[in-house]
Records
---
Amino acid sequence: MRKIKAVVYGVGAMNTIATRMLLDKGVEIVGALSRSEAKVGKDLGAVTGLGELGVTISNDPAEVFKRTTPDVAVIAVNSYMADAVEQLRACAEHGVNAVTLSEEALYPWKTSPEITEELDAIAKRTGATLTGTGHQDVYWVNIVTMMMGTAHKIDSVTGRASWNVDDFGPEVAGDQQVGSSVTEFDKWLKSASRPPTFGRNVLDALVAHTGLTPTKITTTTRPDLAPSRMYSKALQAEVEEGAVIGFTDVDEIRTEEGPVFTFEMSGRVYMPEEGDINQWDIAGEPELTLSNGTVPTQITTCTQLVNRIPDVIKAEPGFVTVEKLPALRYRAFPLHEYVWGTR
Amino acid sequence: MRKIKAVVYGVGAMNTIATRMLLDKGVEIVGALSRSEAKVGKDLGAVTGLGELGVTISNDPAEVFKRTTPDVAVIAVNSYMADAVEQLRACAEHGVNAVTLSEEALYPWKTSPEITEELDAIAKRTGATLTGTGHQDVYWVNIVTMMMGTAHKIDSVTGRASWNVDDFGPEVAGDQQVGSSVTEFDKWLKSASRPPTFGRNVLDALVAHTGLTPTKITTTTRPDLAPSRMYSKALQAEVEEGAVIGFTDVDEIRTEEGPVFTFEMSGRVYMPEEGDINQWDIAGEPELTLSNGTVPTQITTCTQLVNRIPDVIKAEPGFVTVEKLPALRYRAFPLHEYVWGTR
């Protein structure tokens, strides 16, 4: 039984983790792609700190795909479909299955329909499967749909998640309005031109899974305020009590049949004891709740990118979103045993 | 598109709830079975308080199955395979799919192999599918295997669940040794002849799903003690601080490949603010946790019994345990649309 051949597409922090996991799971890395001049020409192992891998980083996807005929590309490059289309199209045109952590790719049918339909058509023609996965796959979609499966009647589904502004640099802290007053925040929000939230994609996937008919879709944004004087590592500055430490986007989809779906995504400076959360509440019969305590979002993004590979290789061709894939499972054995073996 | 035809097998507290849910989901109840002389001959609706249903409760499964040719039987009668085999065999012999809440039926391949293999053979011959489901399906197996799917490397999986002795009568309180001293408890435990725990079936299902090889299987039992003077509704008596209020069975399966699976099931008198819990921790990379707060176990048993019906009707014939079924999903529409329609 041969190994799965993978190309690592993007050689940043996420694919550095994913590359280690791929190797641990018996995947053969046959190529690596980056646009960074500092990385192209170097060995993937040297750049990721994993030791000599004999895989030279290239900036030519077409050449790499033709030469290596990989079973899958593992893409960790960007977040929005407008950008992600470049890597996904390259994969689709060469008949290469792809998993990407691009957040919008989780369920892009409503927010970027033209691009997604174009990619779906190319992939169906060449026999490739394209899937957006990552932390959001299980924690924001499939663990929620499974808990929904234990309800008799659902009135509402409400999710709450968060990320730490201080995990990123001063630019992101600025984007999140850290340090602003509420007045400044309100002024910024009125004139801000922002892309659709990823919470929207999460709710689109949940609603699509139920077969319910979306009617009204809204996004509102509220500032998160410092409960006391705080220090922001990203800003390298103190933030006064009552000042803005980030904000929460609240996406909501109402449905013709009644159930209301809400997702609150908060990007803010954390208090010392805080971590990323994942909490879901279902109102109806019965009342249900789920919490994953503190979630290591970056690691669970990489694990799902890797553990989804057998599902994606085996899936029908096209742009296949995760609510249509089988329940994700732990890969105790090399990944190829789940594709070509009896696991 | 015709409705699903169901027979309600057992007319107690659980199937009273399930009958209402079946009717809500557009299922046609074509028969009802009970061995209770007080119920046989009466209308199912009269006994369950759901109003005239035109379904007379019978004590003759063969006659009911032949006359009504149901698509599925919903069994809520007993807990162990040694008892459950009677109802499951009746279904299998008549080619009737069945869901049962019998706890051991969740994964009976190891604890009752002969009975299970016999039922599997009959069901395969007649084209029926037999499945044990209920609260344990999602909360103790499938939500756990899904969270495991977000791990890179698992060292251990540890679950904790509980049930309230006071939800039952004095007999169960006696079985749980409520009111005993620790010395009395230890003496009882040494000589007690107890059937395998249901935690064993849960762990068997989890390990089977991973494909790992079980090596050592143990069950240990420890008393739960009153943290202060408590009142037991089941005993209708006070229990002194330090006295036994129930006990916790700790099942453990070690595997050849390394990961250790543990499930702690506690049946005890609750403090006023306590409820049934469901908590799972995965140690490895990364560390993961899940809690469902307070779980309404009886309701989630009935919802899963009902919501699993389309999966069971569509499954291959045989004794099909839940770790092999598709991810359970919410049924927003009549159940037959998931079987014969495009949902």
Note: Chain A has a mean pLDDT of 97.
---
Amino acid sequence: MPEVAFEVDVDAPPDDQPGANPFNRWHPDIPAVVEADPGDTMRLEALDWTGGQIRDNDDANEVRDVDLSQVHYLAGPVEVNGAEPGDLLKVEFLDMGPLNDRAEFGFTGTFSQQNGGGFLTDHFPNAAKSIWDLDGYTVSSRHVPDVRYEGKIHPGLAGCAPSQELLEEWNERERELMERHAEDPDSIQNHPTGEAEPPVANPPTTEGALMGEMDPDEAEEAAEEAARTVPPREHGGNHDIKDLSIGSTVYFPVYVDGAKFALGDFHASQGDGEITFCGAIEMAAYVDVKFDLVEDGMEKLGVDHPIFEPGHRGPTFEDYVTFCGYSVTEDGEQRYLDSHTAYRRASLQAIDYLKQFGYTGQQALHILGTVPVEGRQSGVVDVPNACSTLALPKGAFEFDVSPETLGSDKDRGDVVVTDDPLG
Amino acid sequence: MPEVAFEVDVDAPPDDQPGANPFNRWHPDIPAVVEADPGDTMRLEALDWTGGQIRDNDDANEVRDVDLSQVHYLAGPVEVNGAEPGDLLKVEFLDMGPLNDRAEFGFTGTFSQQNGGGFLTDHFPNAAKSIWDLDGYTVSSRHVPDVRYEGKIHPGLAGCAPSQELLEEWNERERELMERHAEDPDSIQNHPTGEAEPPVANPPTTEGALMGEMDPDEAEEAAEEAARTVPPREHGGNHDIKDLSIGSTVYFPVYVDGAKFALGDFHASQGDGEITFCGAIEMAAYVDVKFDLVEDGMEKLGVDHPIFEPGHRGPTFEDYVTFCGYSVTEDGEQRYLDSHTAYRRASLQAIDYLKQFGYTGQQALHILGTVPVEGRQSGVVDVPNACSTLALPKGAFEFDVSPETLGSDKDRGDVVVTDDPLG
Amino acid sequence: MPEVAFEVDVDAPPDDQPGANPFNRWHPDIPAVVEADPGDTMRLEALDWTGGQIRDNDDANEVRDVDLSQVHYLAGPVEVNGAEPGDLLKVEFLDMGPLNDRAEFGFTGTFSQQNGGGFLTDHFPNAAKSIWDLDGYTVSSRHVPDVRYEGKIHPGLAGCAPSQELLEEWNERERELMERHAEDPDSIQNHPTGEAEPPVANPPTTEGALMGEMDPDEAEEAAEEAARTVPPREHGGNHDIKDLSIGSTVYFPVYVDGAKFALGDFHASQGDGEITFCGAIEMAAYVDVKFDLVEDGMEKLGVDHPIFEPGHRGPTFEDYVTFCGYSVTEDGEQRYLDSHTAYRRASLQAIDYLKQFGYTGQQALHILGTVPVEGRQSGVVDVPNACSTLALPKGAFEFDVSPETLGSDKDRGDVVVTDDPLG
Amino acid sequence: MPEVAFEVDVDAPPDDQPGANPFNRWHPDIPAVVEADPGDTMRLEALDWTGGQIRDNDDANEVRDVDLSQVHYLAGPVEVNGAEPGDLLKVEFLDMGPLNDRAEFGFTGTFSQQNGGGFLTDHFPNAAKSIWDLDGYTVSSRHVPDVRYEGKIHPGLAGCAPSQELLEEWNERERELMERHAEDPDSIQNHPTGEAEPPVANPPTTEGALMGEMDPDEAEEAAEEAARTVPPREHGGNHDIKDLSIGSTVYFPVYVDGAKFALGDFHASQGDGEITFCGAIEMAAYVDVKFDLVEDGMEKLGVDHPIFEPGHRGPTFEDYVTFCGYSVTEDGEQRYLDSHTAYRRASLQAIDYLKQFGYTGQQALHILGTVPVEGRQSGVVDVPNACSTLALPKGAFEFDVSPETLGSDKDRGDVVVTDDPLG
């Protein structure tokens, strides 16, 4: 086992850890707390993305009331000696797994429309929760019976620190989006409307900011401009790519000397899109990483976003039921080549299908969020309809979920749903 | 070999075929020309989607000047005895292949921004063409050297006839989109702007309409309301799903008595999204289909779009280089959870990457349109950025396209590009 | 479609074909009837291995009485210009398929112990037959219900002509084996004993010899020493490798000027080992091949047997039930690291297992011979027991064949079995 | 993490562990040291199969001089409450991995012909050793450069205790084999000949016997008849099946009340056949197992050997170079349907091939023993030649090992080989 270079204690408060504390903002000046040479291998541990707010119980109010200002709790930054802007930082994910003897479960949540929302929040406005058992890599849930499969573990979030210039670019463009929305909500496609609607972006805030080992005076100032960790951006970040599992190699753009790499937000398994938002099987975990550098890699390879080579450790599935969606909203409004809407419709088709097999809609939503479904951009040019497909692996179910069976009327219980949506 | 129930002659004009003529509009009243019982297996042949307008030569003007009013040339309609609205028509694709002794090549085109446009038309405004050899299922192109792979053949277009009611719904919602665009072009996300911009939708037109065996008098009237075949819709249609290859089983919603199933627009291979628009390897082909019915299947399975179970005949790839994109436009504009833009950016990353290996941008575009790349809806909830990924299979190349190689300066020629964009 | 360079007529006698006749012996002097340059692509057609002796009916006596002196009916020889001894002939299998409009079925047979025998002939001494429908690549049989799968088509037999020297080496070593057996039957491991036992090898014979376009006078003399086509040898030959399907590339050693390549004995699908002997789904078929040469390839690559790179066209299976066998005979005799016996035992385990699902033993045998089971040399060093495994793909069955189901008592009929074993 | 029910200390002597000691014989009376109910999940740890005799250094004499009387060191027995003879014990392998912080390497050895021997001992009579680094599941070796891959971890050995009756059957048949060999060495096929030849079987011996928690007086007596753990037998045992990796479910026959299940001999990776004998990447490891029972499963499923369903966690490979072998010995002797010899020849072809890429023969041997090569029983009926194939995954190499490259003259060093074969 490689040396544990960043260690967490799931029983301690997330902001009062025995060693270096996790941090939760992107800023070039957050000091590195781990040092690595090219060629080094080390273990990094990370808390779950809520820092322990969701526990193994049957209380969905924990999801409804989750404090989203502090997320995520990242491991790092790691300074890689010799890394310079323009390089690519090569990161091999040699192994990952649960912090077994310290945190033995995962959770999936539907956020309340009043707090977080999500892809299908207008269909599922109330918070809900399911708890998942981790048997090695095999996952199952008392809240979603008859589903049991080998998960595809991965970090939802990983990337290098932005430069000051890049950070300002992020802030500027996201502020501009919020302004557009404030001026004319209808100008923002794909956003649910209504009083409790989730924000279109999360601007910098000092509230809940954890700036790592930064000097407290500087930290306050930096937090005022530091980027939130919710969205993925061109450095990677919270991209929630389910395929970054064991054996993958990622090349991350470097923007500051030493790269200042960090990661976190592990998922025992996730479907493409992470459509439940808090939607993968969220967990605390470790990862063994090996670092290397590609000097001037961004120019040499012509990229300014991460690229990666997926591993070969599966799980592999062969048999799928696949659903189609096009860019027409549920209300019948025709959108122009809108892949987001197309994937929504494919997801809703899959949910309605699963309801014919005895699941509730919320259960079906949690299935799509956790099972490694393949969400594909199948067609993007046939005006006006984009076509997205969602492929559901049959092997994740302990019964035959094929169309030939014409469904099943077995009662399969439910996830835990909040009855009082306002908390 | 099953009986050829719909035969084409690639050397005859597309609208003057020896047997029943192909048709190119969706309308409930177009008469069936083939009859099938549940359980029947038959062979259907189809012209390429342009009806032979693009030939095996080095002239890209054929693509620039293509007549888009007549596309596509569909085989059918097939009346399946006993099919009723609400049923699902089960269609097994037992085999497909080129009309070998009659049409032995495929083509890929970049449409002119003045005629068709496409996903990246503002980056590649000029028409271009590449010709592909079909060696069995193995494809290669003199215009894109050092790429050679086993393709994933499939019909780009398949579905049952709409009911009159569904047809009107289509027409209404697409007209509404065109009106919105006419009033305020900026309200339509993802649409390129400029004088020569492609239309946001294609309304019914009698021009170029082929109404099959319909009585000429009725045909003219029907054509005025018949839906164009360009977009996919909830019946399937032109969904361009690369995974519908040999061995797949599709369940199509039935809207009219007898189902009136049709298909066409075959591709020797395609990448997810078909980003070149005329973008797969377009070809004339045959398919052997087996029909069956699931009575009341739409209600029993809770679906009103096609669902399918993919086959197992590959080709399978294991090694990929994967590119990421987020919903920020190339100009730096922040979009809200816009998967279309995210996939554009991932595609552009891949194109820039391939340029480091000696390809031109147009060649790279044709590679992404034809190689079975996996385009994934990786993240759709992390506001404001959707994340899409594009996974390029290394096995499609005859050299090592891995990041480790740091590119190659080999000259790899070019596709044929129009020098005069206006024709 | 490439030019048909070797054509067959399944309705004509196998030795009186319209063009060049198939041949059935290996000899350096059989003249080439097709010529190819390196880089050429062509179509070759071949009769089924019995030349049409087994027909689509319910008469198993055709298998019992099959004339084995004439098999197999090979397409070729093909002279590849420039090929010299020591080269490797590179052959790409671009496409294959049934001669659809001329022969639309396949067959599987259990040979009689009196005529041919086979791997499990002491368990299944009577001849039996099953007829298989070919729906594209999907196969099924009225004699083996509830089994339906996409097959893995391949030529059972392919290779270049031996040199005179190699031919003599073959004859010498096989004669020596027969002599050993004649002197002391017990010295020959793995051979069934009894009066009707099949021969341990098939020596040259002029009976039934088809020497292609050889001068009749020379042919008679050559047939006296020409090698039979039953066994595979270091040139390839009848190696019955199920993985040589569409998209594969094989490098065959060249022993004579021009290589004189030939192939035949196509199978719509086969399990590893072809344990029924006449055991794959036997069929007439075509193959599109592309030839190339690797000069001095045998020395450069250090090989003197064929090597190959399998294609990627599947079918792929993910879910298996796997059976184990060790080198102890059914009678309890301990053998020393005997993989043949180990695979026998694994096969018998699988047969007994399938009998719990309603199949007869003969049906189970035909399933193992035709479904692409994986037969593995799992352990070969743990004295005294070799371990072989047989992995049965669940996806080949239309019901759940998992252990969890504990079998099924459904009556599934039977293959056609000869009642009078002597004919 | 499940409770550790059997714990080992790799720094303590293998027969003086802190808790229950490993055992190394099969006997029904060895007492269970772990108890489980059906449905229970637990972690079992095991020493490497030599109990620490081979260390991470460059001394191959450790392999030459290894004491084979004590192997293997098994974890267990586990008594599963309610298990009765005739049941099947269902064992799910939920997770496995190295004892990371306690043993961080693996080893591969070629046994000396004087001590252990092996599949190709007449070609490689001298002992040799390679040491492998375990980076998570990714393995590499300073002794075999340019090979690096994700391994397929598995226990080489697992099974339930035999009944007294079954034990006697084993002893009887293996004794009979030794007697046959003593009387007439030539009657034993596949055995190397010469003064230093390894034994054909290993009879019971009290020397080195570890009888677990058995009373010392009874243990001595039991050891005189207890079966050695070297060979696999119908209970499973040392079957060395590389496919029993994470996610697999095995059904083991039960012969005694409580089943008395045990396992050990973990491999970080192995090729089919484990042709180096000490040939996989040998390691100490843990496994998380879940137990369940199928009452009367042997009769219900018609099996009396283990059956299993492989997991889906890969690694998966798509591109192979495959080698063929037939049942003719290297000396040109024709064998009758001898799959062992066929696999030998395929292995030797692969070794000669790898030598063209700069490896020594011993390195090539270690590659075939450790990389998950697929060893197939391709043909077993075409008298007199069986055909076996060995498929080498290209993805295990850090360079292109395709035939197209025509080899490489790079110097790749060597494994450590003993210079004095006698010690």
Note: The domain at 4-309 of chain B is CATH 2.60.120.580 (Jelly Rolls).
---
Amino acid sequence: MVYISASTGQLIKAVLFDTFGTVVDWRTGVARDVAAFAERHRLVDLDAWAFTDAWRAKYDPSMDPIRNGTREFVPLDALHRESLISTLAEFGLDPADYDEELADLTAAWERLDPWDDSVAGLAQLGRQVIIGPLSNGNLALLLRMALRAALPWAVIIGSDVIQAYKPTPQAYRKAVHLLRLDPGEVMLAAAHNHDLAAAQRVGLATAFIPRPTEFGPGQTKDLAPEGDWDLVCSSIVDLARHFS
Amino acid sequence: MVYISASTGQLIKAVLFDTFGTVVDWRTGVARDVAAFAERHRLVDLDAWAFTDAWRAKYDPSMDPIRNGTREFVPLDALHRESLISTLAEFGLDPADYDEELADLTAAWERLDPWDDSVAGLAQLGRQVIIGPLSNGNLALLLRMALRAALPWAVIIGSDVIQAYKPTPQAYRKAVHLLRLDPGEVMLAAAHNHDLAAAQRVGLATAFIPRPTEFGPGQTKDLAPEGDWDLVCSSIVDLARHFS
């Protein structure tokens, strides 16, 4: 079966996914690696959840200078590492003491488990349309994440390939262009309303998949749709049903 | 099992493939679509094999101005279309008469069948290492080729992503960089000695897989290895044996 977007009026040929939070559970995965790091170094007072949340709090701000053009593009790996260094300092640790481990701990962001529905949903959807990430992650990160988590992407376009971070319009436009499709033939699936809003502004179709525990048990944002999205789905399996 | 390259001394983590000729049989596939085009237009005198060979003869020359910096990068789709237009003229046909079909006939280059061993060999190899094309094809072309031919790439890096055509050193270097690997951890597998020589010059490991009928029954070049390659293999299945 085919799916025609009500908002774009076009047949959807590709569904691209926000990845951190929409396809994989970054909070549990990163906290697991932070806890192992703390245990190795006998940092008994280090709260792995609090450390993870503090590290993640630097994620969006770290991309802002690149989004607004005051800093040249650097891959997300490098930003994650910079944010890790300042988070260690915030928690009273000297980053120099852990220099040899920083690259490996930074790679926690590629050792993330998919949500329960992700692999089955992507496999179903991938039989009908082109599927791939549209993520702020760089290609090497997304590739290793996909191999570890068995995400069956047809194509991986990293933010380093595009040289722009979402929600910059160019991040969506260049992915569409590389796929040789029209914006209206591409759907973004995401757990974040602001990401969908940016995609919609450049003409993409949209699917909202809320992930109410992405930020932990006390999450308050992105619990409900805040825009006129083509689809609101309970899971990627639910999304795939609209295409098969 | 792991494979350590004798030439680079490193564990091979990715095997990248030349695509046209090494993984897929472009001559048979393109000639099939040219023959169908000729039949639709009752061009009874059009020799589909001769037309295909003439079109392919413009392939390398079309990239030369981009390789030597006298022309800005344009994707292979655009070069294939320009070469098609001049081939039609060479064969006494007015390209303007076929304007609406040029895009579809150009896309013959993504409707190519794999050699008999390709899919099985790639599937085996893909369980051990990262596999992907390292081709002069653009991402959209390689993606559609992969979906149609069921090529199980882990990642697709198009020449438009890299903005360089092989054998320019940057074409190999940038692919390695995007994968976050060292050159010596990457192997190029190709049916063409000059491609392997260029990869070797920038530090990659090499595997030669001769395809003695790629250019038809009278092929005279690339029948035997002409360099000191890590491996000389009779097929991609044979190559995969070294990794499993």
Note: The interface with chain B takes residues 77, 130, 139-140, 143, 146-147, 154-158, 160-161, 178-180 of chain A (CB under 8 Å).
---
Amino acid sequence: MVETSTDQKQEAKFVPQSEDRKKLLIVCSKGTLDMAFPPFMMATSAAALDWEVHLYFTFWGMDIVTNAKSLKISPLGNPSMGIPNILSIIPGMTSVATYMMKKKMKETGMPTIEHLIKMAKQAGVIFHACSPTMKLSGVTKDDLIPECDDIIGAATFIDMAGEADVTLFI
Amino acid sequence: MVETSTDQKQEAKFVPQSEDRKKLLIVCSKGTLDMAFPPFMMATSAAALDWEVHLYFTFWGMDIVTNAKSLKISPLGNPSMGIPNILSIIPGMTSVATYMMKKKMKETGMPTIEHLIKMAKQAGVIFHACSPTMKLSGVTKDDLIPECDDIIGAATFIDMAGEADVTLFI
Amino acid sequence: MVETSTDQKQEAKFVPQSEDRKKLLIVCSKGTLDMAFPPFMMATSAAALDWEVHLYFTFWGMDIVTNAKSLKISPLGNPSMGIPNILSIIPGMTSVATYMMKKKMKETGMPTIEHLIKMAKQAGVIFHACSPTMKLSGVTKDDLIPECDDIIGAATFIDMAGEADVTLFI
């Protein structure tokens, strides 16, 4: 893993792997189970279509590359789930909702986030951890899953966005 | 409505309607009343400026094309609304907040989501439903509003993003 | 400050400052303390790399340009924070979580949002307030911080997005 601190902005210039391939860059800023899926669905699909794909894990999204197994979904304040808040507040309901979503996903043949991480990696997707977030949250290099390719700051991210055909903030 | 399953990725190649017009693609992933607005405000504005506009309804955003009338806003966990959580948890408060927002919108002359759907459609905005989300949530073709033009998977979405001038994830 | 109402769409054509510089446009739609950071981290980094940067404050993001000091973070319904909902609901917990996050940020040398606003402005970042949001929420020109450069509608936003190299919705 290559660590590029924010103090070395000058050296952090992003070099795309190829000039020819389309490039997709996704910022993964959410740490809930539901919002962890879209980046991986898009990343694996784009990689299958031979795009160069980069995932930038920042803020709550850092949880995906430190503790994917523990991601949860909260029915609280999410009217789309249809569970009344007064029930959602009961201790254990977040775990129940998470269990139910995982069960539903298994039944419909959807891969888990842990599996999607491996699928994305095998397809060549590049994983970047956000250095300012690590500093703020106390996450160290050793806490990151081995799939992380490097640790980069906002300047390198901007360079990458400047080279990407599509950049999404999720 | 044309259904393109994810099993037919090869055929799902996106063909833009025109080479000349600017293209906007918006992923609608949220199912709350507040976050349903930005995609339609942008879509109708872009269409008025003669852009080709595509809306891709996925995850919680599927609620917009199945049950727009029932979209709610939750004051829980949303400090911007200024309602203390201990009040927001009271049964019925989500409905009260939703009613208040709709009333405010009506007073200031803002169209409803149902109206915006019709406005967008009349302006030529193209509606896509996400097939993996439908599989996961059990939504069928018959549950979709007639404004939906087709059902597509992630591969077709990536093709579309590759052709778009602007792609946003909301 | 230049006010461009949505009734003057024709005149609102966006003129980029320069043809040569890369352009970044960020929609700031969230009013929580955590989600107020990413736009400013990216904006200041891009400006340091000589990009032309535009921030468009809309929906809950309007709070950033009216009352940045009061932005809060809610642990409710955010499993990433690891605080059980049954504790988060206790009156005052939103303030406690906000205090804790601000303390953590100070300890790790991260600037406050108020400071980031000044840093962004000094670096040439351009601030736009969303006119439909102001109408809906009753915010007037006088409520906006002086850093706001103008008030624009969705049509001008679309023009800007059409000229930008990267457009993000946060």
Note: Chain C has seven helices and six strands.
